[in-house]
Amino acid sequence: MKNLWPTEFEASDLPTTKELLEEQARLLPQLTNDMVHADIVQMDELDMIRYGLSNDFGYRFDIRGKFLKDYRFNLFSFSHDITLFPVVFKLDEKIADEVIGKQGPLSAGKMVVKNIQELENLLSSVFGSARLKAVISSIMRLSK
Q1: pLDDT of 108 strictly over 80
Q2: Quick check: 11 pLDDT over 60?
Q3: Which residue range(s) make up the domain with 137?
Q4: What is the pTM of this model?
């Protein structure tokens, strides 16, 4: 039988959403004098359902204080299938209102990102939001 496969496969050199966020998570302690940290936590099926996500891979991006052991602020959750894009984000409701505006009750802070440029634009808006600055400021104050 004739080989029907392509003659070669090429791996993408673009960072995955998770890799890009891991890099951002490593930067946060440096910016907050080691008072605030971020974790990327892989979600199981039950968490995916609870967050209203339904792709193959799902994660939470949580912010936590150095001395606030039991507190985590869920900044957003995100999921994607095996092809990496599109990525579905479910943002903190107040950040979603600030960054993407008030939406109907069915959207609940969800946003679909189709490529790396849209991803960087969204993350820049989320990380620069007044709500996140207030949350991080409070975490720093409570972590002393």
Answers
A1: no
A2: yes
A3: 17-142
A4: 0.88
